[in-house]
Amino acid sequence: MQITFLGTSSGVPTRSRNVSSVALRLPQRAEVWLFDCGEGTQHQLLRSDLKISQITRIFITHMHGDHIFGLMGLLASCGLAGNTQGIDLYGPPGLEAYLHHCRKYSQTHFSYPIQVYTVAPGLVLQDTDFTVSCDRLDHRVTTFGYRIAEKDRTGHFDVQRAKKLGIPSGPIYGRLKRGELVELPDGRTINGSDLCGPNIVGRKFAYCTDTIFCEAAVNLAQNVDVLVHESTFSHHDADLAYERLHSTSTMAAQVALMASAQSLFLTHFSPRYAPGNAIHLEDLLSEARAIFPNAELAYDHLSYEITRRG
């Protein structure tokens, strides 16, 4: 699992930062999942190592323009990029109607299937490898944060021990590797779990933007390996954060601390902290690290490999 930041500015793009989008690359499945799709996201993808043709799912947090204005253009390009498998879209009420009207008035026709799912707090999807859940954040419009959890896997299978027990190789090994209870041809019953090491704990990732500090974000981020949380404002501008229902650097750090997250990436920065201004982004990082030391500033095209704990 690898995350790549495609846009880390809030509201409007700057010369060095595009508006919101984060990609989650799943190389074991040759898939890319997107979280938000601000204007210019497809250009950011073209400047990255990610393949547009591998995008299979897009998760939208809310319907503000800096999170969705790039969606229609990207979807129109995906068919030309060779994506014929289809794309599933997940987001708040209004997403399907927005796409419908964009297609209608631009007379755009997709050459591949698109399915739109309106999310609600709780489980969003579950497959053989992952679960995705969401919860309502605290913003001016209906907004959801997302949690992606890789399922635990059976530990290392001890082939040598299986051979010493006289277990014949073949399909039986596959069942034992999955921890199943298997009856051998000689009548013995072997518990596959006894031949496997400790379970490999799945990796976890949470994406929370836009929101002021809220318990829902803490719940979504419980014990995650990586939390991506908005940090629109400095602690010195907390009044603006409360007025606009955005987070400060210290609020994001509080969420990470209370959730026992492994690491925190701050993103969605106000352009007011550009070089030359009284407060810089490095000041926001210092504010966050005073509460949660393992915090980092995200920047466009930063890629980070999410590793398993321990």
Tell me about this structure.
- With 310 residues, the protein is α/β, with parallel strands linked by helices.
- The chain is 25% helix and 25% strand.
- The chain contains 10 helices and 16 strands.
- Strand 12 (204-208), helix 7 and strand 13 form a beta-alpha-beta unit.
- Helix 9 (249-259) packs parallel to helix 10.
- It is globular and about 75 Å long.
- The two termini are 16 Å apart.
- The model has no long low-confidence stretch (mean pLDDT 93).
Distance between the termini: 16 Å
Based on DSSP secondary structure assignment, what is the total number of beta strands?
A: 16
What string gives the helices and strands in order? EEEHEHHEHEEEEHHEEEHEHHEHEE
Radius of gyration: 22 Å
How many strands, which pairing sense, and closed or not: the largest β-sheet? 7 strands, mixed
**Tally of helical runs:** 10
Family: Belongs to the RNase Z family.
Binding site for Zn(2+) 2: 66-67, 210, 268
Function: Zinc phosphodiesterase, which displays some tRNA 3'-processing endonuclease activity. Probably involved in tRNA maturation, by removing a 3'-trailer from precursor tRNA.
Protein name: Ribonuclease Z
